Automatic annotation (TrEMBL):
<dbReference type="GO" id="GO:0000724">
    <property type="term" value="P:double-strand break repair via homologous recombination"/>
</dbReference>
<keyword id="KW-0539">Nucleus</keyword>
<comment type="similarity">
    <text>Belongs to the SMC family. SMC5 subfamily.</text>
</comment>
<keyword id="KW-0175">Coiled coil</keyword>
<dbReference type="GO" id="GO:0030915">
    <property type="term" value="C:Smc5-Smc6 complex"/>
</dbReference>
<comment type="subunit">
    <text>Forms a heterodimer with smc6. Component of the SMC5-SMC6 complex which consists at least of smc5, smc6, nsmce2, nsmce1 and nsmce4a.</text>
</comment>
<feature type="domain" description="RecF/RecN/SMC N-terminal">
    <location>
        <begin position="56"/>
        <end position="1025"/>
    </location>
</feature>
<feature type="coiled-coil region">
    <location>
        <begin position="203"/>
        <end position="345"/>
    </location>
</feature>
<keyword id="KW-0067">ATP-binding</keyword>
<protein>
    <recommendedName>
        <fullName>Structural maintenance of chromosomes protein 5</fullName>
    </recommendedName>
</protein>
<keyword id="KW-0158">Chromosome</keyword>
<feature type="coiled-coil region">
    <location>
        <begin position="667"/>
        <end position="801"/>
    </location>
</feature>
<dbReference type="InterPro" id="IPR003395">
    <property type="entry name" value="RecF/RecN/SMC_N"/>
</dbReference>
<dbReference type="GO" id="GO:0005524">
    <property type="term" value="F:ATP binding"/>
</dbReference>
<feature type="coiled-coil region">
    <location>
        <begin position="865"/>
        <end position="899"/>
    </location>
</feature>
<dbReference type="InterPro" id="IPR027417">
    <property type="entry name" value="P-loop_NTPase"/>
</dbReference>
<feature type="coiled-coil region">
    <location>
        <begin position="380"/>
        <end position="435"/>
    </location>
</feature>
Length: 1073
């Protein structure tokens, strides 16, 4: 069957020039395909990807099957199609920069695509410059802009960003992740008429406008509320004007009131002024009547002053004599006290002598008693041997106690040292545990499901037969934090958070519990049955020191045995060296001489692969990312050593406590024995010292007795001395008494004082009589003066009050200092309003009460009323306009919706018919329908794909979670095939979509692709695959493009298909012969 298909073989061509090397792939052209709008005719690639130097591809107009082993460059052709047609690198999912698609070592690459179009073909060329990461565009080999290229491609309905038209290898999984809405839009763009997607966009825009208009129309409710509010404002405005009238009347009353008050006070002032003048005349008359009485009273006061001076002189003389008499009496009392003191001193001498005699008697008695005791005491026995024996025992006992005390001190010091060491170990363990806690918190923040599984594992470790390790990011402890980035860049993120099990059965039990029961997304791996943890590297690290390598990855961290075994098996950490900047500087030599496949320098990772075709080394290097999980590590060896040291210290402390308790008991026993021996020694010493003590005490008492006898007092001598002192004092007393008698003779001065006092009394009564008569006439004068002063004060107060009221009244009426009273106020305020304060106050209170009923009103009510009235008018006009627009939009939506739904339903019915047919041919069921959540929400319309692969199940919507990878791949492929005959796009690309299928489904799908893509009315189709099954069905319209690669391939310019076919015919002929 293969021989019936058009076959093209191509491969890389090695060219010496590095500036511009090209790969050209010419597409087969056929006259029968000129009816299509456009399709690939020629594809040329220059230094594109890492596979080709020069390549030229000639695809056929129908189905093109591109076959080649992995790594030969099939996907490079797909990348060239996408990038050559103004596609972005993100559409391919391989790299984010356009320069990364140019072959390594070259400065520029080129893609040229020729598209068939009537009347003239279009040639689009893209040059990619590595240094600037920029592209230069050409149309028909003339410079052009990217916008011009995009316009040309859009005019041909080429959509490399539409997964329904262009499905690269790295985007196959994303097709099943398309939402129903995204799938509908992609399908519309791919096979729908141009107006279909335009109608859909218009519907979404119309619906958005309709929502905005509906929101505006809903303002009708607010309009009614505004009208109701204005009605309320209208009543408030009327009440406001009525309130203003009351306020004006209150203002007039308040203006008149001070004038009325002023007039009342002014009248009172005139009355008080007249009364004061009358009292002033009466006061003058009374003062003239009081003049004679005043003269007589002054003469009486002068006589009283003369008598008062005489009495004062006499009183002073009497006071001096009295003072001298008092001094003499005090001197007599002092002499009596001196006599008493002399008698008291003599009595004290007498008592002292009596006490001395008693002490002598008592001392003699004590001496006699001690002499008797000394005479009766036996001769002192010899106690020295017994005392010596006790001293020997005490010495031995003290030595033993000293030894025990030293032992206790040593043990206490050792215990204190051990406790300090234990505290240091506990603090260090706390620091290590805190680091583990930080790592767990980091895990909880970034991988919550993994953290939940970790908590479950710690509580249920008894459910596993063998050891179950926690996630690697917790188990791995980097010895030096600077090396953490090497470990993290070497181990994938999925494995970093994976649990490690020694038993496959344990791992399956764990995953069933986590994924099926608890619905947690966690990873788990199983360590190899045969341990790889102790595997030796391919060469000792010492041999690599010359290249700057200092360690293998395995030596940079600690981990449990299963984790290390898994990493050695899966990541070969025992054989990946880590180097320095020195390694980076000599990297080419390292690659050539060491044959290492992976290595690390200070900041980069190098991976070296050998091409299966050229046998040349392919080197890739990536910059190392900063560590996220292992930057904080715990040294497990240190932690284990600390825990062992803590246990040993705890045991030692218990032993020390037991030994100390024993020594404390021994100390207590020795102390008791020491006290007993000392008491015994004390008693022996007291028995030997008693006689010496008695003799010493008797001698002391004799000395005391002699001292007492020497201190005797002569009482007779003391008595005579005291009598002589008393006689001398009595003589002094007699002299003082004589002086006192002489002073007492001056008594007549008191008689003179009495006579003067009687005369003073007579003059005082005369004065009082005159003053009484004066007061009788002066009472009326004082009353008159008081009345005059009161009236004068009142007049002044009333005057000041008048002036104050005048000022207030003018201020209330807003009158200037020289301004006269206005006529309008005089006519209204003083004639129509009340004229008394009582009437004005009553009227004023009444008006204020009425005005107070109008609460909550101010000038803003009138302003708001006018403003609201204007807004109502504007809003009414606005709503009328929006209602008209809404009706027009609804009419437009209805027309566009009818047209769009008719086109969409026809399209989906066609897709569903073909999709169901394809599934039926595979003994499965598949349906495609239009999914509608709400009829008016056009942005949520979508295409729903439902499939059933087994008779025992029901139709389920195609999702990336419910179906397997193979089922998703088959469904995707059949949906794309259903679009093939309906397609209005010029070509379709599907890259390695058959990889996840089982052989039976792969065969069925391939036959359907051949049948569909080889029809006359279908567009050009590219089917990329690394392999084909045996005995497949082929078609004459197919073009088989076999991609070969290797060191023995012919250069492109040396291919001669006629020569090859001629040689093939000769070989077949020779074989027949």
């Amino acid at each position: 069957m293969l021989c019936n298909a058009n076959t093209v073989l191509f491969g890389p061509d090695v060219i010496a020039s590095r500036s511009c090397q090209a790969i050209f792939l010419r597409l087969h052209d056929s006259p029968e395909n000129l009816q299509l709008c456009s399709y690939f005719k020629i594809l040329k690639l220059a230094v594109f990807s890492r596979t080709y130097n020069v390549c030229e591809v000639y695809p056929g107009p129908n189905l093109n099957v591109v076959v080649g082993a992995n790594g030969t460059g099939k996907s490079s052709i797909v990348c060239a199609i996408c990038l050559g047609l103004a596609g972005k690198p993100s559409f391919l999912g391989r790299a984010d920069k356009i320069s990364l698609f140019v072959k390594q070592g070259c400065m520029k690459g080129m893609v040229e695509i020729e598209l068939s179009k009537s009347p003239d073909n279009i040639i689009i060329t893209r040059e990619i410059h590595v240094v600037s990461n920029a592209s230069v565009w050409f149309i028909n080999r003339k410079p052009a802009t990217l916008k011009a290229v995009e316009e040309q491609i859009a005019a041909l309905n080429i959509q490399v960003d539409n997964l329904c038209q262009f499905l690269p290898q790295d985007k196959v999984g994303e097709f099943t992740k398309l939402t129903k809405t995204e799938l509908l839009e992609a399908t519309e763009k791919s096979i729908g008429s141009p107006e279909m997607y335009q109608f859909h966009c218009e519907l979404k825009n119309f619906r958005e406008k309709e929502r905005e208009l509906e929101v505006n129309v809903e303002k009708t409710t607010s309009l009614e509320k505004m009208k109701q509010r204005v009605e309320r404002y209208k009543q408030d405005v009327e009440r406001y004007h009525e309130c203003k009238r009351h306020v004006y009347l209150i203002e007039m009353l308040e203006r008149k009131r001070p004038w009325v008050e002023y007039e009342n006070v002014r009248e009172q002032h005139e009355e008080v002024k007249q009364s004061r003048n009358q009292v002033k005349k009466e006061l003058k008359r009374l003062k003239e009547m009081q003049a004679p009485w005043t003269k007589k009273i002054q003469e009486a006061e002068e006589n009283l002053k003369s008598l008062d001076m005489k009495i004062r002189d006499n009183t002073e003389a009497i006071r001096n004599i009295s003072q001298k008499c008092k001094e003499k009496q005090d001197a007599l009392e002092m002499k009596d006290k001196q006599i008493e003191e002399i008698n008291q001193a003599f009595r004290m001498k007498k008592d002292e002598e009596t006490n001395r005699q008693k002490k002598i008697h008592q001392t003699q008695k004590i001496i006699e008693e001690w002499k008797n005791e000394l005479d009766t005491m036996a001769v002192c026995e010899n106690l020295q041997p017994q005392i010596d024996a006790v001293n020997v025992e005490l010495k031995k006992l003290q030595e033993e106690r000293a030894n025990t005390d030293n032992d206790v001190s040593d043990l206490k010091a050792e215990k204190n040292n051990q406790e300090q060491e234990r505290k240091r170990i506990i603090d260090r363990l706390g620091q290590l545990n805190n680091i583990m806690h930080m790592k767990e918190e980091n895990l909880k923040v970034k991988f919550r499901d993994t953290h939940s599984a970790l908590m479950w594992l710690r509580k249920n470790k008894d459910k596993f037969k063998k050891k179950a390790c926690e996630p690697m990011m917790l188990e791995i402890n980097v010895k030096d934090n600077r090396h953490a980035k090497y470990i993290e860049n070497h181990i994938s993120s999925n494995d970093m958070r994976a649990f490690v099990f020694e038993s496959q059965e344990d791992m399956e039990t764990f995953l069933v519990e986590m994924r099926d029961h608890q619905k947690l997304r966690v990873n788990a791996v199983c360590a190899p049955a045969e341990s790889c943890a102790e595997k030796l590297p391919s060469r000792p690290i010492e041999e690599l020191h010359q290249y700057g390598f200092y360690s293998y990855l395995r030596e940079l961290f600690d981990a449990p045995h299963p984790v290390t075994s898994y990493l050695c098996s899966q990541y070969r950490v025992h054989d990946v060296p880590v180097g320095t900047e020195k390694t980076r500087d000599m990297i080419e030599r390292v690659i050539q001489e060491t044959n290492l496949r992976q290595m690390y320098t200070a900041e980069e990772r190098y991976v070296i692969k050998v091409s299966c075709y050229t046998k040349q080394n392919i080197t890739s290097n990536t910059c190392l990312k900063e560590a996220q999980f292992l930057s904080s590590s715990v040294d497990t060896d240190e932690r284990g050593q600390l825990e062992n040291q803590q246990q040993a210290i705890d045991n030692l402390l218990k032993s020390l406590d037991a030994r100390l308790a024993s020594l404390f008991g021994k100390q207590k026993h020795l102390e008791h024995k020491d006290n007993k021996l000392r008491q015994e020694k004390k008693e022996l010493l007291e028995r030997g010292n008693r006689r010496r003590q008695l003799e010493s005490k008797i001698a002391v008492k004799y000395d005391s007795l002699r001292q007492l006898e020497q201190d005797a007092i002569d009482l007779e001598k003391e008595f005579n001395l005291a009598n002589m002192k008393i006689k001398e004092i009595n003589k002094q007393k007699a002299e003082i008494m004589t002086e006192l008698t002489h002073l007492m003779k001056n008594i007549p001065l008191n008689v003179v004082k009495v006579a003067l006092a009687l005369q003073m009394t007579r003059m005082t009564s005369e004065k009082n009589r005159l003053q009484a008569d004066y007061k009788a006439g002066n009472g009326q004068l004082r009353d008159a003066q008081q009345r005059f002063q009161e009236l004068a004060n009142r007049k002044q107060l009333l005057y000041e009050k008048c002036m104050k009221l005048m000022k207030q009244a003018r201020q209330v009426c807003r009158l200037g200092p020289d301004q006269g009273f206005p006529e309008d106020l005089k006519l209204y305020a003083f004639q129509t309003l009340p004229n008394t304060l009582e009437e004005i106050d009553a009227f004023l209170n009444e008006e204020k009460t009425r005005a107070s009923c109008f609460t909550g009103l101010n000038a803003s009510v009138v302003e708001e009323y006018n403003k609201q009235t204007q807004e109502i008018q504007q809003l009414t006009e606005y709503l009328e306009k929006k209602k008209t627009e809404l009706n027009n939009y609804k009419q437009n939506i209805s027309e566009v919706k009818e047209k769009w739904l008719r086109l969409v339903k026809v399209m989906i019915e066609q897709i569903n018919g073909k999709f169901s047919k394809f599934f039926s041919s595979m003994q499965c069921v598949g349906e495609v329908d239009l999914h509608v959540e709400k009829e008016e929400e056009y942005e949520k319309y979508g295409i729903r794909i439902r499939v059933k692969f087994h008779n025992s199940t029901e139709l389920h919507e195609l999702t990336p979670y419910h179906h397997s990878g193979g089922e998703k791949t088959v469904s995707t492929m059949l949906y794309l095939m259903a679009l093939q005959e309906l397609n209005r796009c010029p070509f379709r690309v599907v890259d390695e979509i058959n990889q996840g299928m089982d052989p039976m489904n792969e065969r069925r799908v391939f036959e359907m692709v051949v049948e569909t893509a080889c029809k006359k009315s279908t567009s050009q189709y590219f089917f990329i695959t690394p392999k084909l099954l045996k005995n497949l069905t082929y078609n004459d319209k197919m073009t088989m493009l076999f991609v070969y690669n290797g060191p023995f391939m012919l250069e492109t310019y040396r291919w001669n298909m006629k020569y090859i076919k001629r040689r093939q015919r000769r070989r077949l002929a020779s074989m027949k012969e």
